[in-house]
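Bug #2210: token dump truncated for Cell division protein FtsX?
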Amino acid sequence: MRAQFVLSEIGVGLRRNLTMTFAVIVSVALSLALFGGSLLMSDQVSTMKGYWYDKVNVSIFLCNKSDAESDPNCAKGAVTDDQKKQIKSDLGKMDVVQGVTYESQDEAYKHYKEQFGDSPLAASLTPDQMQESYRIKLKDPEKYQVIATAFDGRDGVQSVQDQKGILDNLFGLLNGMNWAARAVMALMLVVALMLIVNTVRVSAFSRRRETGIMRLVGASGFYIQAPFIAEAAVAGFIGGTVACGFLVIARYFIIDHGLALSEKLNLINFIGWEAVLTKLPLILATSLLMPALAAFFALRKYLKV
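Reproduced locally. Full output below:
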């Protein structure tokens, strides 16, 4: 009988404040969609870091004849065979080095033509203008500075470059976008909480006569509060369900179909469906608990029960 009363009161409350209930559902849906999106964005950045940091190389570019005339680092002339052998020997002795690949001038010229063949500059370049290099695979990409310290400024070395620095700029941008999304999410959560509190208070005010009678006949505080808390929880749960739908649809159409980024951007290792599905229970639980707790604390002061 009590459960039937609570359920009937939930329906009455939701219908009486239909406009505010709809506003609660929309605000909760948007805020939790952003919440889930920010979590997925963090997973995506972590996945990309693990994928790309494992593939980055440190490159030691060697001086050629052109560099000897124009680059201060190559003032002593082009790299010699003995210097190349010494560099390779020293690399082989370093514990941080996993593998070393040598790229000749002809190979560098071929790779440049493959990547930038349409560039006007490519037509004027010759193989002897390209730089020989050693491409070093590190066991730990964070140990780039060990290579830079050992070889930067050495005779025959024009420069030491770390591809990780380029990726750090990209991931810094992605992390900045993620924090911006979290800031918007926090703002939306505040708006949602304010709407929930106002909706509960309006509902309680409109039924103040019924709640007064219930207090007079000895109804417990929780029994009086239960319908209002349940209303907020139901509205929040609907919003959470909509947020889950947003995330599933976004993953489906943006990555798998529609935009199909997984096919167009083969170089990016996108998160899988398991990452999305593991976030849905958290979003649904938040959508239930957040409105229920907000309603509980709002009613404690308002109803004074």
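Output looks complete on our side. The two ends are 22 Å apart (CA to CA). Marking as cannot-reproduce; reopen if the truncation happens again.
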